Amino acid sequence: xxxxxxxxxxxxxxxxxxxxxxxxxxxxxxxxxxxxxxxxxxxxxxxxxxxxxxxxxxxxxxxxxx
Length: 66
What we know:
Layout: H1 2-5, H2 54-60
């Protein structure tokens, strides 16, 4: 079960060409929500949102915000 552990078995094989004024970061770091942010990096990934019915969540004692 690699995905629950956050494992990545497909490393990026190469970098990218930095072009001044472009979207890519000149130093290869992504600093989201930072005053020093100066671009993004590229990669591959996935996001998962798991939803439960409200009555099921309440009955099992799950915490959530209202």
